[in-house]
Design brief:
With 466 residues, the chain is mainly α. It has helices at 19-49, 54-81, 84-107, 113-141, 147-175, 178-197, 212-227, 230-259, 265-273, 275-286, 289-293, 295-308, 320-352, 358-370, 373-387, 389-399, 402-408, 437-446, 450-465. It is globular, with a radius of gyration of 23 Å.
Length: 466
């Protein structure tokens, strides 16, 4: 007779047998569909319906991305102090309500770029909190040995959203109108809130609530933890290089497709949606290749291929019958190898980070990686307005190679076939029991912990006496 809680092979049961995990998966899938559709619909409303210029589109994208720079660190400390499920529910309810403003403004004849900027800002703020909570929630919901399978399932749903979200959003903008298309995103966000709210399992909150001083201390510990680990530092820098230039490229890209290649909203949605099937393939490859060839040997070549294929886009000429199949192939390859990089880096980060630090580490890396994206979006709009769409697209595509170049000379390239071990650190809540501020400062200077060693020696002697 096999042991309870084990399958026939003696391994722990998979996450799919957990009803709460299924609710998380449904909610996350719906939320990703809403986010992917919104990322296409809002720029298309600005370009097609409101006739926004390159600078205005760059500003719109920068407004939506600015909260990543301004709020990521606060969101990490917030999530580590509270129930991640509650944060996700409130964030998606808020995003649904924010998007509902657009069709309401359209019916009242008030829809314009200022309304679009305000909605994009609200959606960006709530997305920061949802993304941090979502990446920290899985660690609290499933056992450590189920993290890889749980991440694979969640990344698979994100890949499906990348397939359907852009295509659905682009089609709705073309067939109906922008305000009607926005309703779809609001529906998906509302569905996500309902599903995640139904999770019943008690979620342990690693750190109890504290005052503002506690928040600052938690943010500082998250920054110090990432800065003190060479692999996490490399993840942050590589992400920053990629996200900055990718934000600039996407601003030009969203102008280049309708204005230079004269593609319809449906064709643009199909081209962008091709990233989704590639991401599905990349997720499957990520489950096998790093363990077989080594994490470093998979990361660097995959990043080179993913970023390199974007160099094909500025060379495109001709009708949609010629350019659309090439764009689909480019985006499929970008999705495949880009997802392989993403899943591999996520596994490295989760393996190194203790449970009670997950939210802050996610937020710190998001801050370092995604923080420069508003500047990148503004740069993309500036380049498009002064250098032309084709030249700007070529420059930003070449600049993407800086990220894999940095990875090639970082500790990430030297990772072997096994994930690095978890870096141990004391939970933040134990900091309040420190003997005295002077001792705490001494520990932070020289790394020595004489009082802790003395305390362990005393406890060992007492246990022998007993």
């Amino acid at each position: 007779m096999r042991a309870a809680g084990k399958d026939r092979a003696g391994a722990p049961p998979g996450p799919w047998r957990d009803a709460d995990f299924r609710r998380l998966w449904v909610g996350q899938t719906a939320s990703q569909f809403g986010a992917q559709a919104t990322q296409v619909v809002l720029p298309l409303i600005a370009v097609v319906s409101l006739h926004a210029g390159s600078g205005q589109l760059g500003f719109l994208r920068a407004v939506e991305q600015a909260p990543i720079l301004l709020l990521s660190l606060l969101a990490g400390a917030w999530v580590d102090r509270r129930c991640a499920r509650t944060v996700m529910v409130l964030a998606d309810y808020g995003r649904a309500l924010a998007l509902a403003v657009i069709p309401a403004a359209g019916l009242l004849g008030l829809l314009g770029l200022p309304v679009l900027f305000v909605v994009a800002l609200l959606v960006g703020v709530l997305s920061v909190f949802f993304d941090v909570a979502y990446q920290a929630s899985l660690v609290r919901l499933v056992d450590r040995d189920q993290l890889i399978r749980g991440n694979s399932a969640l990344e698979g749903s994100r890949s499906a959203a990348q397939i359907g979200g852009p295509a659905l959003g682009g089609t709705l903008v073309s067939v109906f109108s922008g305000p009607v298309a926005v309703v779809t995103g609001a529906f998906f966000f509302a569905l996500s809130s309902v599903s995640i709210r139904r999770i019943r399992r008690h979620e342990p909150v690693p750190v109890s609530g504290e005052g503002r001083t506690g928040v600052r201390r938690q943010i500082h510990e998250g920054l110090r933890f990432v800065a003190g680990n060479a692999s996490l530092r490399a993840v942050g820098v590589a992400s920053a290089l990629f996200q900055f230039w990718f934000a600039a490229l996407m601003t030009v890209y969203l102008l280049y497709l309708p204005r230079e290649l004269h593609l319809s909203g449906t064709a643009i949605g199909l081209a962008l949606a091709a990233t989704g099937p590639g991401a599905v393939v990349g997720s499957m490859l990520a489950a096998r290749l790093p363990g077989r060839f080594g994490y470093g040997k998979v990361l660097v070549p995959s990043a080179v291929i993913a970023d390199g294929v974007m160099l094909c886009v500025p060379a495109l000429h001709g009708t949609a019958a010629v350019t659309l199949p090439v764009l689909i192939g480019v985006n499929f390859a970008f999705g495949t190898f880009g997802q392989l990089v993403n899943v591999t880096l996520m596994a490295v980060r989760q393996a190194i980070t203790p449970v009670h630090m997950q939210g802050r580490v996610v937020a710190t890396i998001n801050f370092a990686g995604m923080g420069p994206t508003p500047v990148g979006s503004l740069l993309g709009g500036f380049l498009a307005g002064h250098w032309g769409l084709r030249t700007s697209l070529l420059v930003t595509a070449v600049a993407l190679s800086l990220s894999p170049l940095f990875m090639a000379f970082s500790p990430l390239a030297r990772l072997g076939r096994r994930l690095p071990c978890e870096q141990r650190t004391a939970p933040v809540s134990t900091a309040r029991t420190a003997p005295a501020p002077s001792v705490t400062r001494r520990w932070s200077r020289d790394g020595a912990r004489p009082w802790a060693k003395a305390g362990r020696a005393v406890r060992q002697r007492l246990s022998r006496v007993r």
